[in-house]
Amino acid sequence: MQLVIGNKKYSSWSLRPWLGLTHAGIPFEEVLVNLHEPDSKARRLKITPTGKVPALIDGDLTIWETLAIAEYIAEKFPAAKLWPVDAKARAVARAACAEMHAGFVPLRSLCNMDLSQRKSVTITPEVQADVDRIVALWGDCRARFGTRSNQDRGPFLFGEFCWADAFFAPVATRFRTYNIALPPEAQAYADLLLNLPAFKAWEAAGQAEPWTEV
Ligand SMILES: N[C@@H](CCC(=O)N[C@@H](CS)C(=O)NCC(=O)O)C(=O)O
């Protein structure tokens, strides 16, 4: 399998499947396309119909769109348990990923992923509403599925690591880059994601990239 990704410093969508695959120890070949090269879009359009990354290539199959890539990997590698085993938890994890995929436009527009800098922005009410919703969602997942009968099932949103954690990893970087204040539990969860060995490897590679956004 090949995973086509963009610049590690900036490409939040590429980070999600890369993190899931790497954290789960699933082997794949990484193909990095610099999004800021003049002919980059033309190169990407030869790979996917949208010209966007990430894309997963498995033999004669090319999958574009992160949610579809996540589903394909989970089906192909069920032992990796990239979705929660419990059906209700799995449904909520999928809802959380879909909400991330379709939403939080104000946050994503104002606070782009940039692993190389710390930036300051004026947080608009719309961005704060996104932050509040994410904090509430994380808290709800942790309360309902991360901990059950006082037995902690693991530190992630649904106990063990799953796609929902990978989907929110870029958000954790945005909170850090833009110094967005979080309640202690949400901060602890963001720190957990930012300290995963797989994330650290991605981050180090991103910070070493010579290309900067134009
Ligand atoms: N809906 C797509 C979004 C992918 C996306 O927007 N990728 C960005 C990089 S993070 C991209 O390829 N941008 C370059 C472009 O739009 O030409 C997905 O979920 O995979």
Description:
This protein has 214 residues and is α+β, with helices and mostly antiparallel strands. The protein folds into 2 domains: 2-78, Glutaredoxin, CATH 3.40.30; 87-199, Glutathione S-transferase Yfyf (Class Pi), Chain A, domain 2 (Up-down Bundle). Helices cover 52% and strands 9% of the residues. The protein is built from 9 helices and 6 strands. It has helices at 12-24, 40-45, 66-76, 87-102, 105-110, 125-146, 163-177, 184-194, 197-208, and strands at 2-5, 29-32, 55-58, 61-64, 147-148, 151-152. A 4-stranded mixed sheet has the order 2-1-3-4, with helices on one face. A two-stranded antiparallel ribbon has the order 5-6. Helix 1 (12-24) links the parallel strand 1 (2-5) and strand 2. Helix 1 crosses helix 9 (197-208) and helix 4 runs antiparallel to helix 6 (125-146). The radius of gyration is 17 Å and the shape is globular. The chain binds glutathione (GSH). Glutathione binds at residues 6, 11-14, 35, 41, 51-54, 65-66, 101.
The fold-level CATH name of the largest domain is Glutathione S-transferase Yfyf (Class Pi), Chain A, domain 2
- Name of the top-level CATH class of the largest domain: Mainly Alpha
The average pLDDT value, as a whole number, equals 95
What ligands can be seen in this structure?
Answer: glutathione
Oligomer: single chain
Largest beta-sheet details: 4 strands, mixed
Number of domains: 2
Q: C-alpha Rg, in Å?
A: 17 Å
**Could you tell me the strand content as a percent range?**
5-15%
Distance between the termini: 31 Å
Sheet with most strands: strand arrangement:
2-1-3-4
**Gross morphology:** globular
- Structural class of the helix and strand makeup? alpha+beta
Architecture of the largest domain, according to CATH? Answer: Up-down Bundle
